Amino acid sequence: MIHVAILGFGVVGSGVAEVIAMNEKQLEKHLGEPIRVKKILDVRDFQNSPFADLFTKNADDVFEDEEITVIAETIGGASIAYDFTKRALSRGKSVVTSNKELVSRHGVELMQLASKNHCIYLFEASVGGGIPIIRPLHRCLAANRISKVAGIINGTTNFILTQMTESGADFDTALAEAQAKGYAEKNPSADIDGIDAGRKISILASIVLNGAYVNSDLIYMEGIARVMQQDILYAKFLNAKVKLLAIFLHPEGKENSAIVAPHIVSCDEPLAVASGVFNSIMVKGNAIGDVMFYGQGAGKLATASAVVGDILDAALHHDRSAHITTWYHSEKPVLGRHEASKVKALVRVSSDTTDSIIDSAFPGVFYERLDGIVDNESAYLIGTDGLLTEEALDKNIQKIPGFISRIRIY
Which of 202, 280, 329, 393 has the highest Cβ tally under 10 A? Predict the structure, then answer.
């Protein structure tokens, strides 16, 4: 019998309990023995829950129970969840989680602690919710040198941008609708400022680099609050959509780079297919080429299915590594300077801006002018020849008297 404990009975935690109960017989076939939730730790009362007899408010009931070998941490955040995860791993209990903040901030320590105590720390659900991406990067694509990971990996911002595109809503209206539907928190900053996506791409980047830790604090992040209907209109003219992309580039012989920012994405790009709260992640390998992962990036049962998948792996490989390469702090910088990265952008300007002004601001850089799309302004596609750097873009747009805004092009 495999005994499991769940820490936190919120959306994901309750989903984990439901999935295990719902698919009990199927899970037993995979494991070769029965599996059941023995304890659920939460400070709240759930008297009407079908799992009411499993609840405890005493952490010792979980950590001192030698029968419990796998713990699902679904508390979230990086305070109590961090303390509980360390306590579990220190006692040789494997931990699985959907907590991207905890993984991106403390993954090195927690994976090394798991290795030291001959147990496992798994986090498939931390990036794509129900979309399998961690395990494929470690296993299915292990024969490849991965040169790029790019994705729409935050459902809240994708819903907001989809509403702005399809209904013509402005940002504030679309955000309010996302909050009303429960897709956005009352304080949505982690989503709309790109922080959530930054944590997720840091996890994927650390895997691509075979465990060399990429701190999300080092990743350039730009949110969607400044995206306007004018940006949407230009994107539509270009047969494209505005999406918040998280991108990690690992070019051979060159510096790595990572960014989270709104981009204009051509409708011909597979990534653009993701609308609403759906996510899409593109991985480029030198043997397989482009591979895309698509599906629900969040949701109760979708995320819980990934957590339970990790529970199975942890149970099957309890005293040896399931598929995770232990992370470490690299002695060399893992990311190059953001300012040196190449960029393409759509730059919006007042309609009286002339080509000679752009020539002066961006000498020797290819551009294309767009007129008649938005009243009283024009736009320039700049850097499409691949020569423009982030530093030059930010510096030189300040030389344009009629500059309005800029948005990157994927």
Answer: 202
pLDDT at 338: 97
Would you state the structure tokens that stand for residue 347, as one six-digit string?
């730059």
CA distance 280 to 270: 8
Catalytic annotation, pick one of 200, 241, 300, 344:
200
Report CA Rg, the chain. 23
- Nearest 5°: the CA angle 245, 405, 249 is 30
Helix (H, G, I), strand (E, B) or coil at 231: helix
98 and 307 Cβ atoms separated by less than 8 Å: yes
Rounded to two decimals, what is the model's pTM? 0.95
Q: Which residues of the chain have pLDDT under 50?
A: none
Residue matched to tokens 């959509």: 241
Retrieve residue 6's tokens.
Answer: 């769940």
What is the SS3 assignment for 159?
A: helix
Alpha-helical runs (H) found in 209-299: 229-237
What distance in Å separates the CA atoms of residue 358 and residue 337, rounded to the nearest whole number?
A: 26
Instruction: Name the percent of the chain in helix, strand, coil, to the closest 5.
Output: 40, 25, 40
Could you tell me the two tokens for 8? 């936190």
Look at residue 245 in the predicted model and tell me its pLDDT.
98
Cα–Cα distance between 271 and 405 in angstroms, integer? 24
3-class SS of residue 369: strand
State the Cα–Cα distance between residues 281 and 295, nearest whole angstrom. Answer: 9
Q: Between β-strands 240-249 and 68-73, what pairing exists: parallel, antiparallel or unpaired?
A: unpaired
Tens digits of per-residue pLDDT, 364-376?
899 999 999 999 9
Vertex 271 angle, CA 226 and 179, to 5°: 45
pLDDT of the residue at 323: 63
| Chain mean pLDDT for the chain | 95
SS3 371: coil
165-176 tens-digit pLDDT = 999 999 999 999
Contact 155, 183 (CB under 8 A): yes
* Identity of residue 61: D
Q: Say whether 241 is catalytic.
A: no
Tell me the β-bridge partners of 73.
7, 97
Give me the pLDDT at residue 178, please. Answer: 93
